[in-house]
Amino acid sequence: MNVETVKLATIVMRLTPEMYDFLKRDELDSVIVLRNGLEALQAEDAMEIIQHSISEHQKGAYLH
User: Which of 31, 47, 55, 61 is most buried per CB count within 10 Å?
Assistant: First the structure.
């Protein structure tokens, strides 16, 4: 198993660069651990990781 740790920004720029401007800096700076490395990811995987990251960063956020 090829475990690799990368920032979300790396995943986004490689697989879904059109999403980059929609993400906040703290989301892009999230550290993601990939079980099979960056090379094994596909665009659908990237979208799932992005959705999860957004969800995690919204926990505890208050709507005004």
Answer: 47
CA distances from 53 to 6, 22, 29 (A): 13, 13, 10
Give the Å distances, CA to CA, from 39 to 29, 46, 49: 20, 12, 15
Q: Where are the alpha helices (DSSP H) in 1-64?
A: 8-15, 25-28, 43-58
Sequential pLDDT tens for the chain (64 residues): 789 999 999 999 999 999 999 999 999 999 999 999 999 999 999 999 999 999 988 886 666 5
Extract the tokens encoding 20.
């980059």
